[in-house]
């Protein structure tokens, strides 16, 4: 069984909990340990109690805050005799997410690869002018795959294309880049938004979040619909992102064979009277009506913030 520990001097580890749960939910087996804090047990006692509860079938990745620090040292000593316990020192959020979602079984070799990939996310952010200067002149990375003439392949036997449509008012952000991209094994991200498709600065900011190896295309909603109806699109593992449920309906009416419709984050950026369905979904009366229209096209439409969360059918909220 996969287990994780986040351990630090002071309250850093427990402070990571709220942030990490936004990305991975709260269903994973993660233990948080704080050292040298009044009211907490001695860190050595915490570690010994935890290690004694493990079985030899468990695989454990321990994240400590500082290489060579006392917390790291104590875990290193406690790990003797547990070859399936791996200790990663000097954690950050991208490294943790790379490792958590990176594999079902860990080795020293793949953990090193995940650490190196996570470290790439630590960069000095250049000012807007320099980013624009270094941006590709024709940054239509996904266009080549979806619109150039190539031999087409038949759809799967059930006629369903491997495309997920997600309503997320932030469009491309950390959850998409670090969590959904891995869960869906994406080849490309298609952002469908009328305003962003006309705004080069917003496009540049969104593309900063896209993981390496994943192609991205930003188009208006109607243009995205045309792309998804193309005979080449059904063979690509795509995540289509829209800001509103109303835009999701516009695409669903054009593309009735996507594999999953996901209501993720919506409503926080909208003013006015809203109905709270979940912590992450708050709908105006207009958006609730759009949700009913979407469910009529795709009955399996579900609310799900991160892949580890349980899918909650949208229909159940409409019945209330």
UniProtKB/TrEMBL annotation:
GO biological process, one term: phosphoenolpyruvate-dependent sugar phosphotransferase system
Broad enzyme group: transferase
Keywords: Cell membrane, Cytoplasm, Kinase, Membrane, Phosphoprotein, Phosphotransferase system, Sugar transport, Transferase, Transport
Assigned EC number: 2.7.1.191
Alphabetical list of InterPro entries matching this protein: Bacterial_PTS_sugar_comp, PTS_EIIA_man-typ, PTS_EIIA_man-typ_sf, PTS_IIA_man, PTS_IIB_sorbose-sp, PTS_IIB_sorbose-sp_sf
Reactions that this protein is recorded to catalyse: D-mannose(out) + N(pros)-phospho-L-histidyl-[protein] = D-mannose 6-phosphate(in) + L-histidyl-[protein]
Domain PTS EIIB type-4 positions: 158-320
Domain PTS EIIA type-4 positions: 1-122
Protein name: PTS system mannose-specific EIIAB component
Source organism (scientific name): Vagococcus humatus
């Amino acid at each position: 069984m996969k287990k994780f520990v986040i351990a630090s001097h002071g309250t850093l580890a427990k402070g990571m909990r709220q942030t990490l749960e936004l990305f991975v939910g709260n269903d994973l087996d993660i233990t948080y340990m704080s050292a040298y804090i009044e009211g907490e047990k001695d860190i050595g006692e915490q570690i010994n109690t935890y290690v004694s509860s493990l079985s030899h079938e468990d695989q454990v990745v321990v994240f400590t805050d500082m290489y060579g620090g006392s917390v790291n040292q104590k875990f290193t000593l406690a790990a003797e005799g547990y070859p399936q316990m791996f200790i990663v020192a000097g954690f950050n959020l991208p490294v943790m997410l790379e490792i958590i979602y990176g594999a079902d079984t860990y080795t020293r070799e793949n953990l090193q690869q995940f650490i190196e990939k996570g470290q790439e996310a630590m960069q000095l952010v250049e000012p807007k002018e320099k980013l624009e200067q270094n941006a590709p002149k024709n940054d239509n990375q996904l266009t080549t795959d979806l619109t150039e003439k190539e031999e087409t392949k038949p759809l799967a036997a059930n006629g369903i294309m491997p495309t997920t449509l997600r309503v997320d008012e932030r469009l491309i952000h950390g959850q998409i880049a670090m969590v959904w991209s891995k869960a869906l094994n994406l080849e490309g991200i298609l952002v469908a938004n009328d305003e962003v498709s006309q705004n080069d600065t917003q496009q540049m900011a969104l593309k900063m979040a896209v993981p390496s190896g994943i192609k991205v295309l930003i188009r208006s909603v109607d243009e995205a619909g045309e792309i998804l109806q193309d005979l080449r699109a059904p063979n690509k593992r795509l995540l289509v992102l829209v800001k509103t449920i109303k835009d999701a309906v516009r695409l669903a009416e054009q593309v009735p064979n996507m594999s999953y419709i996901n209501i993720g984050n919506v409503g926080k950026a909208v003013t006015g009277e809203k109905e709270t369905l979940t912590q992450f979904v708050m709908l105006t009366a207009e958006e609730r009506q759009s949700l009913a229209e979407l469910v009529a096209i795709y009955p399996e439409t579900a609310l799900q913030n991160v892949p580890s969360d349980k899918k909650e059918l949208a229909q159940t909220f409409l019945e209330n």
